[in-house]
Amino acid sequence: MKLALCCYAALIALVASCTESEDEEGGGAVADARCATGLRWAGGDAESPLMHPGADCIGCHASGEGPEFVVAGTVQAAIDDPTDCYGVPGAAVTITDATGKSVATTTNEAGNFYVDARDALVMPIAAVVELDGRLRSMTAQQMTGACASCHTATGASGAPGRILAP
Question: How many domains does the chain divide into?
Fold first, then answer.
C-alpha cells in the first residue's frame, strides 16, 4: 500500500511540477510534504470532484454551490492530514442506511467520495471502506453524511481523526 501511494504521489508530483503555475490558479495537485500522499489540492474553489479533500463537502455544497450530496468525504492516508491533502485513490466506500439499502462508490484521485442526494438514504447510516481486500468499518451509525464534519485532522464528535484506508 505504501509503495503504491509513493509511486502514485511521485507520478502526480512529476506532472504537477511541470504545470505548477497553472495548478496554483486552475486546480490540480502540487507536491506538499505536509501530506501523507505528498500531494495537495491547489485549485482554490475551482469546481472539481477533486477539490478540497478532507473539507466538509456537504456543509459547503449546502450553500447552493455545486451538486447536492447525501454523503461525502475523503479517505486519507494519515489520521491527521490537513485539509486539502490528497487522500487515497481507488478505495471502495459502501454506505448502508437504516433500511438496509447500500450504495457503493469509489474514491477518486484526491481520495474524495460522494453519493448524490438523488440516492435517498434513510439515517442513520454506516460505512465500510475496502482497499486491497482489507476492510475498515465505522464503529457507530451516524445521523449525517457530512463525513468531514467529524472526521477532521484532530477529530470531532468522537471521531478519532480522518477516515483512513484499511
Answer: 2
Q: How far apart are CA 113 and CA 3, in angstroms?
A: 22
Same domain, 62 and 32: no
Question: Could you tell me the three cell numbers for 148?
Answer: 468531514
Residue 140 in this model has a pLDDT that exceeds 80? yes
Q: In the chain, count of helices (H) and strands (E)?
A: 3, 9
Q: What is the pTM of this model?
A: 0.83
Q: How far apart are the first and last CA of the chain?
A: 10
Residues 23 and 73 in one domain: no
Q: Are residues 145 and 65 in the same domain?
A: yes
pLDDT in tens, 93-110: 999 999 999 999 999 999
Compute the distance between CA of residue 52 and CA of residue 96 in angstroms, rounded to an integer: 25
